Amino acid sequence: QAWLRSRIARALRDVDITETVPDPLRQRLGLPPLREAIHLLHGPPQGANGAKLAERRGPLWDRLKFDELLAQQISLRTARARRADRSASPLAAGGALVRSLRQALPFQLTAAQQRVWSEIEADLARTVPMQRLIQGDVGSGKTVVAALAAAQAIDAGFQAVLMAPTEILAEQHFGRIAEWLAPLGARIAWLAG
To answer: Which of 46, 54, 91, 186 could form a cystine bridge with 156, CB 3.0-4.6 A?
Structure first.
């Protein structure tokens, strides 16, 4: 423990910790300076609330959490800006396969599914790569939205790939999408490995 503390203290002396948040914003949010937060978390003063520190609560931890979230958001914005410089083939909306799939589905899209599909349909028609995450519970309609996106790509003369994290899920998606798209003339294949 003593050896580790001495190494941390040395690292904190050797590293220049630069403030990342303007003082007025930091003060408005009630966040301590970054250097102070890091030093006090690594070397809490006598009488510090050990439970709060262990549970990662309080202004010192809030400051680190804020900076981690800020770094993540800056990284995402930078990545998005880099992708915006790239070009993508626009996939025209409203093609025949998309229309046929919508008509052949044994259900109507929910309002949420329709909203998400409309956003994706518009994104695919743009000349910049789409960056989108669809999040939802099991059975919320993510697969049908993916099938519609694949149909839009096929309508535009491209191939589409749907990837799944497990072979079981891939097989389930394959079965469902093949059930929807194969009768409409789309060639469907399943790859695993």
So the answer is: 91
